[in-house]
């Protein structure tokens, strides 16, 4: 894992201009081009809870607002809460738990607890539950009914507007909106001024008026604030408040656990040909990615009738500047076809390649070490800048897609641009 | 086999995704829902330097493009969790948003994420959708600035718009100055300053404010010790004075309260009283304790001032309360408006790819050009 945190010494230039390590590069077997996370079209594939690993279809995820119904986050520190079992509060009345005379079987109850910051549902005054999962009180948005009424009202307004448009034979090419409640053109404004204010909805709707009423009454600043000392540890941070936008509680003990958000797995399609370039397994426990290995991927190709014209994004300018020359080898290097068994097999043969010993230092199985000469432009050894070389690597690739389509496999040459960071200059040779 | 993205596509076809990308906080969620799915800082970890960068700190348009790619990727795949391709987007935008921002975000949305359509909705206009009325004076005090536009019978009165660099940012700077005056060796990050502000500071009353710094200054509120490795003494004086910068009139005699009166003065006579009696405050800064009551006292005092006494005959100011917390009221307006399905207002991918530009009709400022030519 450690190598994941290292700087990227070898970077591939994707066709979109991104510079990426090979672990972040995809290859489209149809376009025979390098692709990367920046230039593929990504889609949400499946949702799962990172805690209980529950995997739900999107329709349900949508209803649950993308949140797991079983798992909760700590409202203070946002870690996952654990469910703890305890004894029912009624038992506390019977002092002395060692007393063997207690006949009633202790009732098991459950509460939520954060092992990191020690927040607990008991401290927050949330009643214990008699079942281990679910049952926790949900905080409803108190404004839901009012907001639904507003939505209905706006839908009616919109349908009136649509009718008006049709009546006026509105031309969509006109730059401005027609006369509506929402238009914002100045000429119309002038005509409007001076007309009496009348609610547009009076005759059309039987729904009760939804207009908000303004008031002069405003909550005054409490006089306490000038005299009462405050305990800052009992006041929530903005981050804690924003975890629950419709409440934004100011006091720590008013915070309520929030359902854990689902995470998603994504699929990546080549934007040019719409084929998948990598497909994560639908099962969240598995992190296997069938990159380039899937034998059949035709079901994932959309029928050509629904395909849209590909949208192209301008390539990014490449900002890296090589500061050294590379002396390229005169001969090609032959690597055997990838052999997965070779990683574990010490005896795998070396194919007896006729290597130029000046080029190939060592080879074994799928690996080969080659030596290339680099001439830095600036030979000052005090230069702290790393030496960077850029070159194009050409390699053969057998187009297996053609083979799938019952054509004979085609061998094609693929060219990749690479930048190598070969480190700092240490000493003059 | 179940194919996840089919369901998601169903959602994205049906329901608009509503974004209010503020200079400090972004509110996101779905049209038709009563509150945003979340509110996060408008910032992103730079994939190269691994440092957190705010979107507003972009160096040029190209940099902004890349920052927005990263930020929207997070929003789509981590927070809203929806496939952006062909999605319908509603973007709330400040009337003062620079065209380069709108153009860049449209380009990222269409060219990088291939969204289906974008509806640009001016944030002040969206706000009145949360009230079920068509006339209101909308004052938004967020992070970078305070902006005001009166809406009369559903139409923004553009010639009356006001904007001042008053919001969370200037309060944080003010706090930093107070701490620096106290001691040279406290260098607090803006995140800490914001935390101190949100948890301990408040907007004091007009009455006390006039006495602050004089010899009969009131007893300051209790001091607070800020916990942590670096314990900081937050004096009662700082707690009370942090927000005063919003009310002090600057060299041009401008403050939050003059914004409201100046806007009203710029409106025709028959609109004035209606606007003064239909004020709605939105934006996170207006949630500060004491903010609304101070604004009301400032307004009542200011109409008596010589500056306005002869121009305005207004006796009372009335305020609306939206069914939301003020820092996401604009978002909620978008979420309500977004259910109405008026296709005319949308910029579709097809049109955008053909023209490669965001048409003028989505811009209040562009419309304002003819405002001046018609009105003056
Ligand atoms: N619940 C709250 N209590 C107190 N202050 C808050 C609260 N929520 C937000 N704020 C403050 O409000 C400011 C952010 O408000 P808002 O989210 O409206 O800004 P924005 O939309 O990002 O900015 P702008 O509209 O200027 O681009 C921040 O300075 C924040 O500290
Ligand atoms: Mg805002
Ligand atoms: Zn790429
Ligand atoms: Zn779970
Ligand atoms: Zn915790
Ligand atoms: Zn392809």
From TrEMBL, chain A:
Subcellular localization, as worded in the UniProt entry: Cytoplasm, Cell cortex; Cytoplasm, Cytoskeleton, Microtubule organizing center, Centrosome; Cytoplasm, Cytoskeleton, Stress fiber; Cytoplasm, Myofibril
Keyword Coiled coil: yes
UniProt keyword terms in alphabetical order: Acetylation, Coiled coil, Cytoplasm, Cytoskeleton, Isopeptide bond, Phosphoprotein, Ubl conjugation
Keyword Ubl conjugation: yes
A Pfam family hit: Dynactin_p62
Residues passing through the membrane, by range: none
GO CC annotation terms, alphabetical: cell cortex; centrosome; dynactin complex; myofibril; stress fiber
Subunit structure: Subunit of dynactin, a multiprotein complex part of a tripartite complex with dynein and a adapter, such as BICDL1, BICD2 or HOOK3. The dynactin complex is built around ACTR1A/ACTB filament and consists of an actin-related filament composed of a shoulder domain, a pointed end and a barbed end. Its length is defined by its flexible shoulder domain. The soulder is composed of 2 DCTN1 subunits, 4 DCTN2 and 2 DCTN3. The 4 DCNT2 (via N-terminus) bind the ACTR1A filament and act as molecular rulers to determine the length. The pointed end is important for binding dynein-dynactin cargo adapters.
Homology family: Belongs to the dynactin subunit 4 family.
Protein name per the record: Dynactin subunit 4
From TrEMBL, chain B:
Signal peptide: none
SUPFAM superfamilies: Actin-like ATPase domain (SSF53067)
Pfam families from the UniProt entry: Actin (PF00022)
InterPro entries membership: Actin, ATPase_NBD
CDD domains to which the protein is assigned, alphabetical: ASKHA_NBD_Arp10 (cd10207)
Family, similarity comment: Belongs to the actin family.
Record-given protein name: Actin-related protein 10
């Amino acid at each position: 894992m450690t190598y994941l945190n290292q700087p990227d010494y070898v970077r591939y230039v994707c066709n979109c201009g991104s510079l990426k390590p090979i672990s972040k590069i995809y290859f489209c077997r149809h376009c025979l081009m390098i692709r990367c996370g920046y230039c593929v079209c990504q889609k949400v594939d499946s949702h799962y809870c990172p805690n209980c690993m529950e995997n739900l279809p999107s329709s349900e995820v949508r209803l649950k607002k993308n949140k797991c119904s079983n798992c909760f986050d700590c409202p203070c520190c946002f870690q996952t809460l654990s469910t703890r079992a305890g004894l029912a509060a009624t038992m506390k009345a019977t002092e002395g738990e060692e007393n063997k005379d207690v006949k009633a079987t202790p009732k098991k109850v459950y509460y939520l607890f954060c092992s990191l910051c020690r927040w607990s549902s008991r401290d927050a005054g949330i009643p214990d539950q008699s079942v281990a999962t679910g049952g926790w009180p949900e905080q409803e948005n108190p404004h839901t009914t009012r907001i639904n009424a507003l939505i209905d009202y706006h839908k009616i307004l919109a349908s009136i507007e649509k009718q008006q448009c049709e009546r006026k034979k509105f031309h969509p090419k006109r730059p401005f909106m027609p006369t509506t409640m929402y238009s914002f053109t100045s000429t119309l404004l002038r005509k409007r001024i001076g007309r009496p204010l009348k609610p547009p909805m009076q005759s059309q709707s039987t729904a009760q008026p939804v207009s908000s009423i303004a008031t002069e009454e405003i909550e005054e600043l409490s006089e306490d604030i000038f005299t009462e000392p405050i305990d800052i540890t009992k006041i929530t941070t903005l981050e804690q408040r924003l975890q629950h936008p419709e409440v934004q509680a100011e006091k720590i003990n008013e915070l309520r656990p929030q359902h854990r958000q689902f995470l998603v797995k994504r699929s990546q399609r080549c934007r040019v040909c719409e084929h998948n370039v990598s497909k994560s397994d639908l099962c969240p426990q598995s992190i296997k990615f069938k990159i380039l290995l899937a034998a059949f991927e035709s079901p994932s190709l959309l029928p050509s009738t629904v395909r849209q014209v590909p949208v192209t994004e301008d390539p990014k300018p490449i900002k890296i500047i090589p500061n050294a020359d590379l002396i390229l080898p005169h001969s090609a290097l032959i690597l055997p076809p990838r052999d997965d068994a070779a990683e574990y097999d010490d005896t795998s043969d070396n194919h007896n390649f006729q290597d130029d010993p000046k080029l190939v230092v060592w080879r074994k199985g799928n690996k080969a070490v080659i030596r290339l000469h680099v001439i830095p432009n600036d030979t000052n050894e005090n230069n702290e800048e790393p030496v960077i070389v850029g070159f194009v690597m050409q390699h053969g690739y057998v187009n297996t897609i053609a083979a799938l389509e019952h054509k004979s496999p085609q061998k094609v040459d693929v060219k990749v641009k690479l930048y190598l960071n070969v480190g700092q200059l240490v000493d003059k040779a | 086999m179940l194919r996840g993205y089919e369901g998601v596509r169903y959602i994205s076809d049906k329901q608009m995704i509503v974004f209010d990308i503020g200079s400090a906080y972004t509110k996101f969620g779905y049209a038709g829902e009563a509150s945003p799915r979340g509110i996060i800082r408008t910032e992103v970890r730079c994939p190269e330097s691994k440092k957190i960068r705010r979107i507003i700190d972009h160096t040029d348009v190209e940099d902004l493009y890349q920052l927005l790619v990263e930020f929207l990727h997070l929003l789509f795949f981590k927070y809203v969790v929806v496939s952006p391709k062909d999605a319908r987007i509603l973007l709330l935008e400040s009337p003062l948003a620079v065209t380069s921002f709108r153009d860049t975000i449209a380009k990222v949305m269409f060219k990088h994420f291939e969204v289906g359509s974008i509806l640009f909705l001016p944030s002040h206009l969206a706000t009145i959708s949360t009230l079920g009325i068509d006339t209101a004076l909308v004052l938004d005090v967020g992070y970078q600035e305070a902006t005001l536009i009166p809406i009369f019978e559903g139409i923004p009165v553009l010639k009356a718009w006001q904007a001042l660099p008053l919001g969370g940012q200037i309060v944080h700077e003010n706090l930093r100055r107070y701490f620096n005056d106290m001691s040279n060796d406290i260098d607090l990050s803006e995140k800490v300053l914001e935390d101190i502000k949100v948890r301990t500071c408040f907007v004091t009353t007009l009455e006390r404010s006039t006495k602050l710094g004089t010899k009969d200054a009131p007893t300051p509120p209790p001091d607070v010790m800020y916990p942590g490795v670096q314990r900081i003494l937050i004096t009662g004086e700082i707690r009370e004075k942090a927000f005063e910068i919003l009310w002090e009139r600057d060299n041009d005699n401008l403050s939050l309260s003059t914004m409201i009166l100046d806007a009203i003065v710029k409106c025709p006579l028959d609109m004035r009283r209606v606007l003064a009696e239909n004020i709605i405050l939105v934006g996170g800064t207006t949630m500060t304790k004491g903010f609304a009551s101070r604004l009301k006292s400032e307004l009542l005092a200011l109409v008596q001032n010589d500056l306005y006494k002869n121009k305005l005959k207004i006796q009372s100011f009335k305020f609306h309360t939206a069914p939301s917390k003020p820092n996401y009221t604009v978002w909620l307006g978008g979420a309500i408006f977004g259910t109405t399905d008026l296709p005319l207002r949308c910029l579709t991918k097809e049109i955008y790819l053909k023209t490669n530009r965001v048409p003028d009709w989505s811009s209040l400022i562009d419309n304002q050009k003819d405002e001046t030519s018609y009105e003056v």
